[in-house]
Amino acid sequence: GEEDEVSIKEAAEAVVKGMNFQGEVKYDLARADGQFKKTASNKKLRSYLPDFKFTPLDEAIKFTCDWFEANYENARK
To answer: 33 in a domain, yes or no?
Structure first.
């Protein structure tokens, strides 16, 4: 839901965790921050599927990273 918004930094940290990356993460502070905020609404989805359960972000990112690692040779590059 809208109350579960995450920042770009939080999303990047979820990917780092999902990939089990052990190196240093560097942010390029010389670049623009980009769009400050764009809240997405799931009101329409909730109207059709009121009992829909979203996958928690860390779990979804881990699933996606695991799939990517398993399918790297066949994934589009």
So the answer is: no
> Based on the structure, what is the number of domains in the chain?
1
∠ Cα 15 20 25 (to 5°)? 60
16 token code pair: 């780092």
Looking at residue 44, its amino acid is K
Query: Is the CB of residue 14 less than 8 Å from the CB of residue 61?
Result: yes
In terms of phi and psi (left: phi > 0; alpha: psi -120 to 50; beta: otherwise), the region of 31 is: beta
Q: What is the pLDDT along the chain (77 residues), one digit of tens a residue?
A: 667 788 888 889 999 999 999 999 998 888 877 777 777 888 888 899 999 988 999 999 999 999 999 999 998 76
CA dist., res. 75 & res. 77, Å (int): 6
Q: Could you tell me the two tokens for 28?
A: 């390029």
